[in-house]
Known about the structure:
mainly alpha
Amino acid sequence: MKGxxxxxxxxGAAAGAWSLSMPLTAWAGAQIEEPLIDAVRxxxxxxxxxxxPPVPEFAGTEPRMAYLRWxxxxxxxxxxxxxxxxTRREFLQTAWYESKRAGLxxxxxxxxxxVESNFRKFAVSSAGARGYMQVMxxxxxxxxxxxxxxxxxxxxxxxxxxxxxxHYLDRERGDLFMALGRYNGSRGKAxxxxxxxxxxxxWVFDDREARA
Length: 212
């Protein structure tokens, strides 16, 4: 798989109107199991099994300060969904790390999580998708260790979700609309991508405003 570390430029995609109220059960459909060539399977498996801890690293003081401002702002926004401050901090740090690691915008990942599970760690969809990013259990067999229970572990779930979305984005040659549809099992249909784009807007961070 190429481009795991590439950064995705969203370019201000229009989301369209969508209700932001979330149901009690997981909204998501399901990723569809597709044949993978050995090279892709190996690359995805390697990406999943890299055990580097989700500790942000920065080239200098200013990037670190920008991250801390982001963390403070996102923690405030997420307070009602994850009331415990330590849980919230660990979640945001991991979401930031796994998004950057996969070359995704963290606001996209957070918007997707809101649509998929409304930030519920133990959410299960009618199709059996699990956790924050509603990962289908077959992925643990295809590229993991075969234990779907681990999809309820925060970092494991976020890593699988981000790596899978990156894989779909590469499959769709950078077309985020189509990649999101593939992630949901509704490729080419508008409701799910539009829902993610609409919720993504809730998690966009403007560092210039934060410093004002």
